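To whoever is on call:

I kicked off a structure prediction for a single chain this morning and the downstream step that reads the tokens threw a length-mismatch warning. I double-checked the sequence; it's 136 residues and nothing unusual in it as far as I can see. Pasting both halves so you can look.
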Amino acid sequence: MAEIIHKLVIKVSPEKVYEAITSQKGLESWWCKNTVAKPELGFTNVFTFGKDVSEFKISNLTPGKKVEWKGIKSVDEWVDTTISFDLTERNGNTVLRFTHGGWRAVTDLYAECNYQWALFMKSLKSLCETGTGTPS
């Protein structure tokens, strides 16, 4: 199974990054403007990109440390994939290790998503550090 992996340092506390990746307001501000989300284990977050809808069930919420979602409805290649955000504090900053794993194959969509996730990680970093992200 293939994985998309990104690592970045965000110059804020893990708690601030955790808020941005778990709250509806945070997710709407860096990833998807049309989001329904709650920071509750077992809740299904819904992200609508134009006509495309993706649903991810929250499978892990460890405040300030880890967030994990399981793809349950989306484009076929995203179903049963896992998105995780692992947060570590280092010198007052957050080291974020992002993984979109469980891809059945490395396809053109995989390559496109790898690029797009890098842009969204930049958007998340910007939101946390400056208050402004660039969501889709």
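Update from on-call: the warning came from a stale cache, not from the record. Cleared it. Sanity check on the structure: The first strand starts at residue 2 and ends at 10.
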